[in-house]
Hints:
Layout: H1 2-16, H2 25-33, H3 64-67, H4 70-78, H5 110-121
Helix pairs in contact: 2-5, 4-5
Bound molecules: heme C (HEC).
Amino acid sequence: xxxxxxxxxxxxxxxxxxxxxxxxxxxxxxxxxxxxxxxxxxxxxxxxxxxxxxxxxxxxxxxxxxxxxxxxxxxxxxxxxxxxxxxxxxxxxxxxxxxxxxxxxxxxxxxxxxxxxxxxxxxx
Length: 124
Ligand code: HEC
């Protein structure tokens, strides 16, 4: 019985570890490039040469993987600072005048945020 409880504790520890390592950089690149999903290129440049008309309201994402860890990138995308024009991609509350079909839903899923962070980490 004591052993079982110890295992339960170990499993709980694993469950508490963030899933940052599970992102897929190929899917992440597609999300960043897609103007209906991530819309990152509205404001940022990124080394995605097939996409023309990239934005310059935010910093160039080239090299962002050497400035931040994957986890920092995840946080940055999920919870943009309140005073930034960049959307908080995982926040779904605290907004005003949200259309009914978007109410209570974040822009991206947690898996998509992991994928984008995994892609950005490759931009060294
Ligand atoms: C509406 C404009 C806008 C959109 C859309 C946007 N961003 Fe940003 N982003 C910014 C701005 C502006 C900054 C600069 C700092 C700030 O104001 O928050 C920034 C900062 C960042 C940073 C920190 C960069 C650094 O060098 O410090 C990362 C990483 C980032 N954005 C990633 C993304 C990703 C990935 C997406 C798409 C999923 C995205 N952004 C969509 C405007 C945007």
